[in-house]
Specification:
By secondary structure, this protein is an alpha+beta fold. Helix content is 25%, strand content 13%. Helix 1 runs parallel beside helix 2.
C-alpha cells in the first residue's frame, strides 16, 4: 500500500469519493493556496494519519507501506504553530552566495535571487512538522509491538539550494540539491550507528533493500547491491563507489529524437564530483576540500588523471543505460577531451 500526494498541495480532505485537494481556485480546480490547514488537513499530518490507521489495522500481518510527504518544498507555507516556530532565528545568507568562484558554470554561479530568511524559517517549520509526524509513526509501531520487527527507510527525491550560490529549488548537481538523506532502521541487520560514506544512488535502492530483506531478485537492475556496506561486511569495506546522476533532456531514449536542452550528467565520488553539461563547461569539484563548491578543477593539470578515470566510468555507465545526453554535441566533445591526454581544457 502507499499514500502519496501527487503534487505539492498543502491542504487535503476526504469525503465519500476519497481523498482530494481541499484548496480550490475560482474555477474549482486544485490550488496551491494553503488556506488555513490544521493538524488534520495539512498534507503532512493528513498522510501520516492514514499511515497510522493502516499500521493499526494490519500490525498482525506482514505489510509494505510507502508514505510520500511532499514537504519541505515550495510553496513556502506550513500550518501553525510551525509557521512561526523559527522566526526568532537569525538566518544568514550562505557563504557561496557571496563568494567569487573559479570557472563556475551557470548552474553554480551566483544568481540574482535575493536571500529570503523568512523562507528559511518556513523551511525549518516544514522539516519540524515532518520530524514530529515521523515520531508519531514510530510511536505507533512501538505501541503495536512491531517496531523492532519493521524495516524503516527515510529518504527523499532531491534537496533544495536554500540560497546556496544565490539560488533556490533543485535540479542542479550541487550538494544541497543532489545529496539526500537515506536512513535505514533494520534491527538485527543494520548495526545501530552505521554510517556509509560511499556514494549511493536512487537506482541502488531496490537491489539493496531487497537484499537486506532477504528477498531473491532475478530481474535486471541498473543499480548495485550495497547491503554489504549496511551490514558492515568486511568484504565491502574499502569499495570505492561512484554514483551516476543526471538531470534534464528532451528524450527518454537516444534511439529516438534528441533535442539539445539544458541538462547534465555526472559521476559523484566520495571526494570528487565530475559533471558534464549540455550548455556549460564541465566541472570537477573536490567536495572534501571545497565544501562550498566554488573552485572548478577542470583546468588543473594535477587532477587530469582523476578526470580521465571518472569520465571513463561515466561514459561506460551512460552507454550501458542509453543515456540521452550522450547525443549532446557539447557533452560528446567534453567527454572526448576528458578521456584523452590533451591539456589544457580547450573550450574555455
Amino acid at each position: 500500500r502507499y499514500m502519496f500526494n501527487r503534487g505539492h498541495w498543502k491542504i487535503l480532505a476526504e469525503d465519500a469519493n476519497g481523498p482530494r485537494v481541499a484548496s480550490l481556485d475560482a474555477n474549482g480546480q486544485p490550488s496551491y493556496d494553503p488556506g488555513k490547514p490544521d493538524e488534520k488537513s495539512f498534507t503532512t499530518d493528513f498522510l501520516t494519519d492514514r499511515a497510522i490507521k493502516f499500521i493499526r489495522e494490519n500490525s498482525g500481518d506482514p505489510f509494505c507501506y510507502m508514505i510520500a510527504i511532499p514537504d519541505p518544498h515550495g510553496p513556502h507555507n506550513v500550518r501553525a504553530p510551525y509557521d512561526t516556530m523559527y522566526d526568532h532565528f537569525d538566518f544568514q545568507q550562505p557563504a557561496s552566495a557571496r563568494a567569487t568562484g573559479h570557472l563556475l558554470p551557470d548552474y553554480a554561479n551566483k544568481d540574482s535571487v535575493r536571500f529570503r530568511p523568512e523562507w528559511m524559517s518556513i523551511y525549518f517549520g516544514m522539516v519540524k512538522c515532518i520530524d514530529d509526524n515521523v515520531g508519531r509513526l514510530l510511536d505507533t509501531l512501538r505501541d503495536e509491538g512491531i517496531l523492532e520487527n519493521t524495516v524503516i527507510v527515510f529518504t527523499s527525491d532531491h534537496g533544495d539550494m536554500c540560497g546556496e550560490h544565490g539560488r533556490y529549488n533543485k535540479g542542479r548537481p550541487m550538494e544541497t540539491s543532489a545529496r539526500i538523506p537515506f536512513i535505514v532502521h533494520a534491527p538485527g541487520t543494520v548495526p545501530a550507528g552505521t554510517v556509509m560514506p560511499q556514494p549511493f544512488g536512487t537506482v541502488d535502492f531496490k537491489p539493496t533493500l531487497l537484499s537486506l530483506l532477504g528477498v531473491e531478485d532475478s530481474s535486471a537492475n541498473q543499480g548495485r547491491d550495497f547491503s554489504g556496506h549496511f551490514r558492515q561486511d568486511p568484504a565491502a569495506i574499502g569499495w570505492q563507489s561512484l554514483a551516476f546522476v543526471r538531470n534534464g533532456g528532451s528524450s527518454a531514449d537516444p534511439r529516438g529524437e534528441y533535442r539539445e536542452d539544458t541538462g547534465w550528467i555526472g559521476a559523484f565520488g566520495r571526494q570528487f564530483k565530475l559533471v558534464f553539461g549540455t550548455t556549460d563547461i564541465p566541472v570537477l569539484f573536490d567536495i572534501e576540500n571545497d565544501p562550498h563548491e566554488l573552485t572548478n578543477l577542470i583546468d588543473s593539470p594535477k587532477h587530469r588523471v582523476i578526470i580521465r578515470q571518472m569520465a571513463r566510468e561515466l561514459k561506460r555507465y551512460a552507454e550501458a543505460n542509453y543515456e540521452p545526453h550522450l547525443s549532446s554535441t557539447r557533452i560528446r566533445a567534453d567527454l572526448a577531451w576528458a578521456l584523452s591526454d590533451e591539456l589544457p581544457y580547450p573550450f574555455l
